[in-house]
Amino acid sequence: MTRHVVAPSAETPLAPAPFRKVLIANRGEIACRVIRTLREMGIASVAIHHRVESGARHVRTADEAIEIAGDTPVAAHLDGNQIVAAALSCGADAIHPGYGFLSENAGFAEAIAKAGLTFVGPDAETIGLMGDKISARNFAQAHGVPVAPSVMPTGDIEAFVDQAAAIGFPLLIKAAAGGGGKGMNIVRSASELKEAARIAASEAKRYFGDSRVYAETYVERPRHIEVQVLGDGQGNAIHLFERECSVQRRFQKIIEEAPAASLPPEMRDEICAAAVKLAAAARYKNAGTVEFILGADGRFFFLEMNTRLQVEHPVTEMITGLDLVRAQLEIAAGRGLPATQEQVVIAGHAIECRICAEDPGRDFMPETGAIQYLGVPEAPFIRFENALQNGQKITADFDPMLAKLVVYGGDRNEAIDRSVAALHELALLGVTTNTDYLARVLDHFAFRSGSLHTGFVAEHASALAAGELDTATLDNALIAAALGFREFHDMAFDVPEPHATIGYWRN
Prior knowledge:
The protein is an alpha+beta fold. It contains 19 helices and 24 strands. The two termini are about 30 Å apart.
């Protein structure tokens, strides 16, 4: 374990810092995001990195950096014992997990507490409760939060199939310990049920080490609505309103917005109240997200709770003016909630687009390359969350998300227009991305009208397919030709950093 110290930040803290030094148990864009708030608060930041990541942006940005060992970067970032030891060795007071990696690992949170450090997140017991879909569902139901009709695992596949069929079709088979679309299958007839359950159990075992699956009523053309909550661990909780996450591909979010499109005020109040009820009942501490499925008939059902900061948290920050990382740190230090419910109001609209290294024209196959040129649109209403560098190698070994383009507008139409313009202006050369595809999604009449559901991408697949090269694409191609890829060749191979990954995470 190698430690490197750089000059501390010169910013003056606005208030007494809740911690002296925080280690970020993550990398890439989320590590850079956490470091930014730490610096604003006058808290020293410590980055961790595998040996091949020594030149990574989060390493260069932090006040200190500690090298951690592992056969691969991912293995190193999943070594909780080594990370806790690193925090102790540098005198850190707390560990912020970001998202992905160990952020929802109850054992990691417990190890941090036993070491006398503060975990910037909920306690291990809460993480364990909400990390298991079955226990989380049962807890929600017990506290009056709506859940869909379901069948729990029985240990007898034949009995499970019989009970599931009795609910009626369609059904959704889900992994008890998973998320992110893994171990999930939609079943529309009795003849498919047994095989679908077997496949889901096998996939769940492979990804999560737990073959338990359950079945619940599948809501056709549902919207995916999630509510950002903050809890103080004493039974007090507030919501920061909802996010619309219905635009998905293979159960993975690609565009998120806040607030949700065309959601009646009374429906918003009901969904947000259910999320707060759940968080308060669990005596939830820190930031979390309660996810719901909303049917066309106006009924909504609890889906899951993510016990960490979400990928899409910036849209909530933009419409509320609250820094969620700052709130996490203040709550972790025992300073309570950053605001009362009455003080949290919606102002404007924000949209986040996930920029991924993938080719929409080849069924979204992951793409590889090296970043030859990065040109980012700049405006007061744009946040480009990333940890990219010219020459950085992009491989297919890791999650394809490269960055997040987050755009604010006074209303939804302005946010859409600004987002489309920003996507066309963004230049990321050297690797194929989904940038133009995202612009087509945002500009589609159904998206603009708010006619959203989780099958949106599949329903409009032909309309969203690429046509002739648009002006922005041609302009970028001309830029690439003018720059000349050859002059970047040495740079690309001198940067010993793999594509910034955070491993598997639930959306």
